[in-house]
Fold:
Amino acid sequence: MEINLKLNSLVFNEVLPYLLYNNNYKRILELSLISKQSFQIIQNLLTHKHIIKIKPNNLINSIKKSRENNKYELFLIKYKELESIHFKHCNIYSKKKFKKIKSELLEQCEQLKKVIFNNTNVDTMASNPTYDNFYEFRGLDLYWNSEDRPWSNETELKKETLIIDDSYIFSFEFLSRYPNSKKISISLTNCDSSMCLENLDGILKNCCSTVESIKFYVYNTPHNFVGKVINSKSPAIKSFTVRLANYDTSKLVANLFRESEISKNNILKVLKLKYCEEISTPYLNQEPTEFLETLIGNQTLETLGLELFKVSNSEKLSPLIQVPNITTLICNFNSFDAFLLHCNENHNITTLKAGWDAHQDPFLDDNIQDYDLVNALSNFFKNNKSSLHSIIFYRTADDLKGSIIKERNNINNNIKNITFKILDPYSSKEIIL
Structure:
């Protein structure tokens, strides 16, 4: 008997916003052509709510063509009533280019008041980067190296600045020119000590009070900055990604967070501990227990990343049972087996994420084989007593994806409530296996 399954139109309309998420403009256009109703829903979302994954110049040119052809009603964005536009990323535009984009957008969109960019590479010397609050930047990507430092004005840019050592304290005053930002990411091409600044106090002093996330990306986190972020009330940091290096032993890491009194923090929801020099062979800390004990008493932390540690024994994770608000754990593949066993013991954990760090090439690591991970899964689920709802793998090779799918199909029914996902490294979308 032939069975035709059709998605109920009401259900489709409910899931349509999720189908649009993180999709490019071409794909969104395809979805809008499914029906007249889907077109209207998408048109409303793009006009009033959704992030547009299209370059400003391309949008301007499309609007111009629409005007020329007098086909306003058929255009996917109702630009005549558009009050704000939310773009995904801001390319590195010159002052002249920013001014031109503003002028042309206002010419095409009479009601436009604000252009929002999800991320931007910060121009530290721009005196008016928002162009009188017309532009808004939610995520700020900070970058400096041994030649281009984070100077905020001509005084810091003077010739002497080029030859000073890292004891020089940069003000980071330029951050005050980017109001309403939510995230700050700090990165370098590598972790050469000649590029690493020890005093970053100016970041907290000058960033706006709306900042909720600070992420160190290929940059060693100064120890004194860790405590200041955790104890900060304004900005109130909810997500913090820390990077520590070879010399940061398990004892030092534990002392660092004990001194910051993280057990008393009532704001932080996400804490990720990562290794700094992923490009080289990491000497991962192997004793997380003392650090985890510093978390006991914390009542707000929900997600904990422990990629800094290579855990061989699940018992070393046991203090987590006393921090019941932590429901998501993140580990590297070296520790996957121990974390799986811990999930059987800790019924607070509902999500486990495992993978390689952003700059660690899984194809260069000979110590971890696909079958080790699959065998770990197989052994774990033979006696699954966990509360896991999902296991997410990121930065995995295609062969591993296939092995996981095959093993999932072979494993018995006691994993029926667990969803396996792969995190796409290009789109950051979670793909259900």
Observations:
- Residues 127 and 263 are 40 Å apart (CA to CA).
